[in-house]
Amino acid sequence: MENINSWKDIRWASVESRIFRLQLRIYKAAENQEYEKVYKLQKLLLSSKSAKFLAVKRVTQDNTGKKTSGVDHKLVTSPREKFQLAQHLKLDGKSSPILRTYIPKPDGNQRPLGIPTIEDRAKQALAYLALNPQWEASFEERSYGFRPGRSVNDAMEAIFLGISKKPKWVLDADIAKCFDRINHEYLLQKCNTFPEMRKQLRSWLKAGILEGETYAFPEMGTPQGGIISPLLANIALDGMHEQLDAYINTLGGNRRANRQTTTYVRYADDFIIMHPDLDILLGLKQVVEKFLKPMGLELHPQKTRICHTFKPTDNENPGFSFLGFHVIQKEKWRRMRAATTKRITKQTFITLIRPSKEGIKCHKKKLRDIIRSYRGVSQERLIYKLNPIIRGYALSKRTQISSRIFQELDKYTYEHLWKWAKRRHPKMSVFKLKEKYWHSIGKRNWVFGIKNKDNDEELSLQLQYHQKIPIQRHAMVKGTSSPFNGDLIYWAN
Question: Would strands 209-211 and 98-104 be described as parallel, antiparallel, or unpaired?
Fold first, then answer.
């Protein structure tokens, strides 16, 4: 690193490899509860030039908010500015004010978002590199949100495994304003870190918030929008599963069997708890409320609901929505059971996990708005705009039962594309309109694309279809596995 005099001289493969090896050492020391060694290694990482270069790169190049400025209205775009920022980057226990803005939520409300300055974002990225491997060694098994190597698909697979053999009662919990109400002192004490890091975390939590022309200084909560905020929320909520297991162990019967019948899945501040016995589930709800009280948090009374996966209750329909999917169990037909198993089976239900209706509606609206707003542009630009959105949605939903929904979405897209074409050429006949924008390639008809000038039998560009993304089951992360445990073969596969 001594020969690096500019941003262009940095060899990123070497930088990332060096930091990853240091993170492996932090993870193993934390796993063995050698916290003095953990703190020494974290201080070594924070003073490393490689870590500072990597933190600045992730904030100014990789992050989607790299062109969004904070209260100082400064952006870091040129290689020279990036190199200078990395050279002077240091956790000094200070923090600049946060710019408050609002983004719409799916339910029509607005979510407050705090935008730190570029320098503070780089500091947070640097602190994240040091803190993340320490906590990955102790995070609970069923926590999937904002963690490396884990995703929404892991959470949904855990739910499927938890209810595939037996219907259960479900506590679909929602924490009221989780990010805005976390107690600062409780969180700092739980972080279990050295004084310099604790002082820096405190400065970020206490940083003033600029909204309009007035400043507000928060007494609680972690500002949404910061790089380190999801990690702090995970740290605050860590340990809930342990409290639930402690309650389960107080019940009579086989303790191991009781723990296995309880399914707990958490994704950041969203979590569900499932159990076959309603009375035990109500007891688990009380344990959760008791766990959240010291943090200053509570369950949302309107959004928290108890339902059953298979049978309807007096006030609730069966099934629940979680992380953009709808989970429900339905009765199998006897003929279906005989055809698939060739024997009489005691399991008379089937577990169905599909994309939620709210998510489908939101995706349709996005496709429709793009097609309408691109009426005056070329077909090529429209395809380039739609393809990443269609492919991204299909890849995120292809792990569950989505084939029929993908076909409906393709039909919906075609209908709006036809309106798009008719609006552009109101006097053109439907036959010429079809020949202009839709083509036949092999056995496929009505392919929305642009023909290759050199070969009429091929398309130089075509629209991505939802149903062309194959349905593929997701392999869930095993146990407490982490990318920092050194098992590179497992994570490569």
Answer: parallel
**What six digits make up the tokens of 70?**
């904070």
Residue 28 and residue 4 share a domain: yes
Domain tally, the chain: 3
Residue 129 shares a structural domain with residue 145: no
The verdict on 98 and 173 lying in the same domain is: no
The reply to whether 40 and 131 lie within a common domain is: yes
Task: Give yes or no: residues 122 and 149 share one domain.
Answer: no
Q: What's the half-sphere exposure (Cβ side, CA atoms, 13 Å) at 56? A: 28
Residues 233 and 263 in one domain: yes
Alpha-helical segments (H) within 10-117: 12-31, 35-46, 49-57, 79-88
Neighbours of 422 (CB within 10 A): 12
- Both 134 and 145 in one domain: the answer is no
Q: Same domain for 290 and 391?
A: no
Establish if 476 belongs to a structural domain: no
Classify 442 in phi/psi space as left (phi over 0), alpha (psi -120 to 50) or beta. left
**Tens of each residue's pLDDT in the chain, 493 residues:** 556 778 888 898 999 999 999 999 999 999 999 999 999 999 999 999 999 999 999 999 988 888 888 888 888 889 999 999 999 999 998 888 888 888 877 666 777 888 889 999 999 999 999 999 999 999 998 999 888 989 999 999 999 999 988 899 999 988 888 888 888 899 999 998 999 999 999 999 888 888 777 777 777 877 777 889 889 989 999 999 999 989 998 887 777 888 888 999 999 888 999 999 999 999 999 999 999 999 889 998 888 889 999 888 877 788 999 999 999 998 877 655 555 555 555 678 889 999 999 999 999 999 999 999 998 889 999 999 999 999 999 999 998 889 999 999 999 999 999 999 999 999 999 999 999 999 888 788 888 988 887 776 778 889 999 999 999 988 888 888 888 887 878 887 7
Q: How many other CB atoms sit within 10 Å of the CB of residue 66?
A: 16
Whose tokens are 């007035």? That residue is 214
Residue 396 resides in a domain: yes
Residue 340 maps to a domain: no
Q: What letter represents residue 257's amino acid?
A: A
Helical (H) or strand (E) element with 242: helix 240-249
Examine residue 446 and state whether it is found in any structural domain, yes or no. Answer: yes
Which pTM was predicted?
A: 0.88
Do residues 262 and 284 lie in contact, with contact meaning Cβ atoms separated by under 8 Å?
yes
What is the C-alpha separation between 250 and 259, in angstroms, rounded?
11
Which structural domain range is residue 414 located in?
359-468
- CATH number for the domain spanning 159: value is 3.30.70.270
Beta strands in 81-160, from DSSP E residues, in sequence order = 98-104, 110-115
Distance, CA of 282 to CA of 278 (rounded, Å): 6
